[in-house]
Amino acid sequence: MDGPAAIEWIHSTCKLGSKLGLANVTELSRRMGDAHRRFSSVHVAGTNGKGSVCAMLYTTLRAAGYRTGLFTSPYLVDFRERIQADGHLISYADLGRIAARVRDAVEGMLADGWNHPTEYEIVTVIGFCYFAEMGLDAAVIEVGLGGRLDMTNIITPDLSVITPVSLDHTHILGDTIEKIAYEKAGIIKSGIPVVSAPQSPGAAGVLREAAEARGAAITFADRDDVRITASSLEGQVIDFCVDGQWETGYSIPLIGAHQAENALTARLAVENLRRQGYRIPEEALRVGFGQARWPGRVEVAARDPLVILDGTHNPAGAIALRDAVTPFLTGKKVVLVMGMMEDKDVSHVAAILTSLADDAVATRVDNPRAMDTRSLAEILRGYIPVQAVDDPAKALIMAKEIAGKNGAVLVTGSLYLIGSVKEALGQTAVVP
Which of 35, 85, 111, 242 is the most buried (most CB within 10 A)? Predict the structure, then answer.
């Protein structure tokens, strides 16, 4: 099987839907030799900020000389973005070869009466097999959904990291912060240390209780321990306070106060890894943080007009986006391009983001769960003038025309939309 055929087979399994639970993925992994037991790992869960923290840890470990893998979801432009190692996407040859073996294992499971593994289960096992074959020192693993029953939760990491917990996927994970925090806390393992981003009192209480019950030392980041000293559309300069000592002048090419807090969480994670014996000198920290990029998160994709991409899809993310870009939009005509999934809190997100804009263009995400363009337009029309354009590429063209050369276009609502717009802009995958 070649790489494109492997991707076609993987995507063909999406019709099976998705389901939480570890029985199937555990069995598939067993048949593939339990590859996840052959490399060290850091496991990252949370509602917002997971990918950014993963990117910072990935580049920092690599800068320190560790052969490191990165497993994330979803992808924006190239499926292979989900499985990376040593600064490269998995090759088509490796993807096809490993996928063929996994397909054989799946057929064996079906013959033995097991349910067919889902797309995410298959991709997870392919990624873990690749990391094991590469002989990596460590891998940074992002949770896909929740934590407790997420496919990646078959690993026993060196460190668990939990980024900010907020309301999202409420129909699956629960309708309160505490219920969602309970699912995120499911990645906490017995005796394995935990680093958490600043949390609301409700989420912090749940995480602390879970850590204590499992004998896992937990460290919470404190917002007072990070400060921004300079910021621009190219990134920001930040200082950290670690163990009572300020470390100054870290440059990160990520925009917004929320990214400074993500950086603090990653910095505390690095400190914990150091205590476990990882050799990560200060220079590697500075180089790693300076190289960390996470596409589609307050990403400046073009100028004249300014085009900013951000795959925010929940109210907490919308607030973070609003606060991050407001200083750079002053005096500009701003046009919002939005496409969202219908199972999201669309009205709340729209209320937050339309406060930034003069006009909007509603469009449709290429996904079966996408909200209809006209329905989204009706929601947006309650706040600002709106046009409805089904094709994201054409929606971008219209938005740029409305904004004018000195204006700004903010594309947001779903990472799937961001991927479509990046393709329309001729942009390829970016490796952190």
Answer: 85
